[in-house]
Structure prediction request, 923 residues.
Amino acid sequence: MKRILLIIILFSSLGLYAQQAKISGTASDSLTAKPLSGASIKVKGKTNGTTTDAQGNFSLNIANLKFPLLLSVSSVGYENKEILVNNAGEAVRITLNQQVVLLNEVVTAASRVSENILRSPVSIEKLNLKGIKENPSLTFYDGLQSLKGMEAVTSSLTYKQVNSRGFNSTGNPRFLQLVDGVDNQTPGLNFAVGNMFGASDIDVESVEVIPGAASALYGPVAFNGALLMHTKDAFQYQGLTLQAKTGINHLNESATGSKGLYDLALRYAKAFNNKFAFKINASYLSGTDWYATNYTDVSALTPANMRGPANPGKDALNIYGDEVSKPIDGVGLVSRTGYEEKDLMNYDVYSLKLNGALQYKITDKLQAIYQYNYGRGTASYSGSSRFDLNNFVLQTHRLELKSNNFFVRGYTVIENSHDSYNTRSLAQFINRDWVQDLTGKVVSPDKADNTWFDRYTAAFKGEVNGVNAQNHGAARVFADQGRFLPGTAAFNDAKDASIHNYGLSGAGVFSNSKFYNAEGQYDFRSAVKVIDLLAGASFRYYDMFTNGSLFDDKDNKVTIKEFGAFVQAGKSLIDDKLRLLASIRYDKNENFDGYFTPRVSAVYTVARNHNFRASYQTGFRNPTPVDQFIHLNVGPITILGGAPKNSENLTVYQNSFTASSFGAFAGAFGKDLAGGKPFPQAVADNKNLLQKSNVPYIKPEQQKAFEVGYKGLLANKLMIDLNYYYSAYTNFILNTTVNAPQSSVYTADGSINPIAAAEALSSTTSHFYQLYTNAPDKVSAQGGGAGLTWVLPRNYTLGGNITIASFNLRNANPNNVAAFNTPKYSTNLTFANGNVLHGFGFNLNWHWQSGFDWYGTFNGNRPGRIDAYSLVDMQVNKKLPKANATIKLGGSNIFNNQVYQAYGSPSVGAIYYVSLTFENLLK
Prediction:
């Protein structure tokens, strides 16, 4: 009993000591004497840290640390400061001098070590905590478009894709997105679904963007650039944060009427004795998605001047099922009646994010972290079809050991897409469930299409009593007898059955794929004095399982291993005016040869805060698992990965027509048929327009880029950022479409086979394949940007940037090159003040970009125009210090311009919102 009592007293005294082993104080503005909320207080060289509350107070645990201590203090908009503390009883009074925000910016993305943004060796953009809080868009992620060089494409209310420096797409596997070092891509799609499964606004501390090739340090995915999101540390940012946001969209839209949206978020973090800390996050965004209602006739088999609502062979962009068509002798081209997207897609979208992290300080310099993220949501995605990512789940587990000079990190990413589906395939399957033959009997789905065309033909030719002959409208009504109407029980039953039928027999998209990643990095600067040396390595293992719905993996397991390693060396010369940096990385995928990606850069400081930079960078991208092994039938087209063993049982690579030659042939054939030529004659007269395809199997793509730039600060008021780049691409991974008939494309004498040509005109005797391959020609892109930020009197800030991007085909065949999909000109203008008067602040941002042609697989890689547009985002906020609260009233696209950002995706209108945020509660 005495021993037990002694142990209790001992632990109690230790606990008392731990409670007393802390320092406390206040932080304030040196000019106004007002308290500084959210200022960062850290023990230099240690992991201990906290932030000030709304009254500027802080309390920092320093158990097991020896005095004196050096505190590093920083706050957005103020000069950094170091304070020496000699004992725990000392009341620490910290005053910070106001400073241009830009001087304080520290970034890590460009070199994987901390450095001042002014001396970054490559272009880099940063959104800091102040920018996140005062962002006028609905979410911080939406606000990324205002950064210089950034592009954004909206497919859904819950899914926005970002990119830089061209070759944009609705799903971008060339742009790396990391959240606390974890790759946020889904294993089955191989790209990040925007921030649908990322971090909530109230947990994001900062965002850094590298526009352009970053493979030399970040590996194959960072071909176009990298986006690094850093969340708040549980030790440093303690307390409870609550945010409630509500708004409306779909204003003045006749198809929907105004709809509400809601965004709720909670964050709580707590530290114990400066040894253990945890945080939890929960956020939920819900609303009505943007409607895709572009019903333009894009039929590839109909001459452009004959397309439109009256075209019996119409293929409307956002109507699905009507792409199933057939040229009928004596009738012309006829397509099946389709369903509008709004009747197929789930427009009630949401994004649920749950996150928890445990942090344990093994020593004052070594910390262990475990983090779990659970994301679930619904979004619309524009790919080769419009996909409904319905109740899609993404989970990540992260375990990390980190110190001041190294980290070892392991994580896994797991997806579950069991409720997701392809809307185009869905319409086609529903269409095959109800067709009657001429006796009124419903036929089996495999006979439905041909039977429907037989009914149409009989009615049009006057072979059906009571139906007017030579009348396309009457023939369609007759062929559609028994059609399932949207909203009926029969339609809903057929829809549900197809959604949960995976593979070739249904529209469901199933994936329980995952990947495992291990990586580490060590900074040798403390051990090697001659140069700054950094090294790292990574290993990734893909374990794919789609049960045959995306890959041919019912009986064939699809796994992929890849690894990479890099080393970086830096040296400062000429009294630290010249900074040289060189790195090289080697990556190897088990299915391809390994590649080296070097980078060299130099930064020269001509005067204080005036820096010129130049760099040679390389980009490298292994084909993703989807690039290699996808085998997805989406109705009129099958998407086929480019690994040789993925098409062993098909002859599509050996026996098919190029899409461009088929388009020319189909157009000429249609014109002759409309002019009265018999079907066989129209085929024979135009068959020589067809060309046999010659598509190679896939291999990695590469990029070489040169960049020069200047970043400087004038009179502590004007920030200037200039850059120019030139990039050359080889082996660019792309999709090419071919038409594969059943018969040989050549006859014995080497001429085009008329039977194969005739088969190519019908979806029942030929099939289109979208093949993954590489561009055989070299192409290049160049561009530049200029950014200015001017700090005006009384805390006003005026900023602007312009980006220019151009694409040079050189001598390449445009049909063999990936789509650039980038406006030539893009501009942003920002005017803001965080505290105009009595706690009121505002932020106004204007974005404009020029028009361009969008090429994508959704429209068969045919161009669709994206007109020039402008967007204005604005917010006005009021800070309530006594309540630790901020009220914000704002809007995205406040003038409600209906804009398309990708052809086939929905038009995007205004979102108006009001939010209330409480911070530093229960601290």
Observations:
- Residues 104-292+345-418+784-921 form one domain.
- Residues 1-20 have pLDDT under 50 and may be disordered.
- Residues 205 and 386 are 34 Å apart (CA to CA).
- The longest strand covers residues 386-403.
